[in-house]
Write a structure and sequence with these properties.
By secondary structure, the chain is of the alpha+beta class. It has 3 domains: 11-210, no CATH class; 254-323, Signal transduction histidine kinase, dimerisation/phosphotransfer (DHp) domain (Helix Hairpins); 332-486, Histidine kinase-like ATPase, C-terminal domain (Heat Shock Protein 90), CATH 3.30.565. Helices cover 51% and strands 20% of the residues. The strands form 4 sheets. The protein has a 5-stranded antiparallel β-sheet. Helix 2 packs antiparallel against helix 4, helix 6 (239-290) packs antiparallel against helix 7 and helix 7 (294-323) runs parallel beside helix 12 (450-460).
Length: 487
């Protein structure tokens, strides 16, 4: 199994850490809020029942006192007006019924359901919930209304009065009880909801503030160049993030040492190869001068060309090593006059261009007081970049071609252009030429490092290099660098 397959994600499905923390903190709050609402409603319903039960018990005993036993039966002192007052409120109806013996209706509402109690205890109230159905006129179905009922069994009679047992029932609609419980729930749940909302905002803000060091760490890593292996600075971060940063810094340090060791090996190897290659070139030149056999001379020429190409490759590798970030940062940057640099490099390569049959020239500004074009950088590296651009143009433009070098200002940029009227390059090849060891043709003497070196140097100077077509044929190598007087 590969390392990528063996590596497990930290979070299921790669979900956001911010979202995970928010869910783990908010879900328990919501669950607790629901549990608190349920408990609050049950408590409110219980207290409402206790209040209603107390009023029903008091009403049943008051009604029982209105029933007085006599020698001939029961005398009920309960005028019609009192009954109408009890049943006047339609939203909180109070129903009552008196029967003696229990089940034989005497007074009140005959449709009030009787309790199902075996062997009831006298003078002890029994509370129960039931449905009250009052008959309707016509074929309409009776409407069931939930009510709360108290049943009170009492013994009456003695000393000349007839003895017996009566059942007193008083019922009350549950609408007010449920409304009271709902009101208590709302009064309790609303502040809880506001509190949960405020807690959610506080938790959300706390998570964002707590994860801010991770965002800063992400910004530090995301804004870096691919070859920037400097340590990450998060000393003010919390210990958890600081530990992560130190682990990353340890990894970066190991990678940096590995890269430096590889580049040092290339540089050392190139230095070691320069001397024997120079000796090989000198010996082949001497041998060609002294040889008389044409076939031997041809072989010596091929050896000399191979030695020259190898020497050029070694020099390019050394230049590339000097252009790498680790080497470039150790070199001093100064203001470089690009017009003067172009004049010197062009004059240096003119003999080589004449030998190749190429007309090489510098396009100087006509005005004598033309503003200077300066950039801040490493003069040696910028010189190497310009040498590579002009050398490529002379090498690939072909005999009879014209190569023109010009330096100008474009806003806040200094622009160097090397233009030739040679065959040019296709669009796909223009970008490929910036890859290391890529060459336009297999029969050329180049090593495929000239343009990669140019791009490396230009990028070290915060610039940009492009290959642009020329009509009807040809190529422009354009380098754009920040002007020194623009900071």
């Amino acid at each position: 199994m590969s390392d990528m397959q063996a590596t497990k994600p930290w979070l299921p499905g790669g979900r956001s850490l911010h979202r995970q923390l928010l869910m783990w903190l908010l879900v328990p709050q919501v669950v607790l809020w629901i549990a608190a609402a349920v408990v609050t409603y049950n408590l409110a319903a219980r207290y409402a029942n206790e209040a209603i039960d107390a009023s029903l018990s008091q009403a049943s005993r008051a009604l029982a006192r209105q029933v007085k036993p006599t020698a001939s039966g029961l005398f009920i002192d309960f005028p019609r007006s009192a009954q109408e007052i009890l049943e006047a409120d339609p939203t909180d109806r109070v129903l009552f019924s008196v029967s003696s013996p229990p089940g034989s209706f005497l007074l009140g509402n005959p449709y009030l359901p009787a309790p199902h109690i075996e062997n009831p205890r006298l003078s002890e109230p029994y509370f129960y919930d039931t449905l009250y159905r009052e008959p309707t006129k016509g074929d309409a179905a009776p409407v069931a209304e939930p009510v709360r009922v108290v049943a009170l069994y009492l013994r009456f009679g003695g000393e000349g009065a007839s003895a017996g047992t009566m059942l007193v029932q008083v019922a009350r609609s549950r609408a007010n009880r449920e409304a009271l419980a709902a009101s208590i729930l709302v009064d309790t749940a609303l502040p809880l909801s506001v509190l949960v909302g405020l807690m959610t905002l506080i938790v959300w803000g706390g998570i964002r503030a707590g994860l801010k060091p991770l965002s800063l760490l992400q910004e530090q890593v995301a804004d870096r160049a691919a070859n920037d292996l400097a340590p990450i600075e998060v000393e003010a971060a919390p210990p958890e993030v600081r530990s992560l940063a130190r682990a990353i810094n340890t990894l970066l340090d190991e990678v940096r040492h590995s890269v430096i060791a590889q580049k040092r090996f290339i540089s050392d190897a190139a230095h070691q190869l320069r001397t024997p290659l120079a000796g090989l070139k000198g010996q082949t030149e001497i041998a060609m001068r002294e040889a008389r056999d044409p076939e031997l001379i041809a072989r010596l020429q091929r050896v000399h060309q191979s030695a020259a190409r190898s020497s050029h490759l070694v020099n390019q590798l050394l230049t590339l090593a000097r252009a790498e970030p680790e080497s470039a940062v150790q070199q001093d940057r100064t203001a470089v006059d690009l017009r003067r640099l172009a004049r010197e490099v062009t004059a240096e390569i003119v003999p080589r261009a004449l030998a190749a049959g190429v007309d090489l020239g510098l396009d100087e500004p006509e005005a004598a007081d033309a503003p200077a074009v300066h950039t801040r950088g490493i003069a040696l590296l910028l010189r190497e970049a310009l040498v590579n651009l002009i050398d490529n143009a002379v090498r690939y433009a072909g005999r009879g071609a014209t190569v023109t070098v010009r330096v100008s200002r474009a806003g806040v940029l200094a622009v160097i252009e090397v233009e030739d009227d040679g065959p040019g390059l296709d669009e796909a090849d223009r970008e490929r030429m910036f890859e290391r060891f890529a060459r336009a043709s297999t029969d050329s003497a180049g090593c495929g490092l000239g343009l990669p070196i140019v791009r490396e140097i230009v990028q070290r100077h915060a610039g940009q290099v492009q290959l642009l077509p020329v009509s009807p044929h040809g190529l422009i190598a354009r380098v754009s660098l920040p002007l020194a007087d623009q900071g």
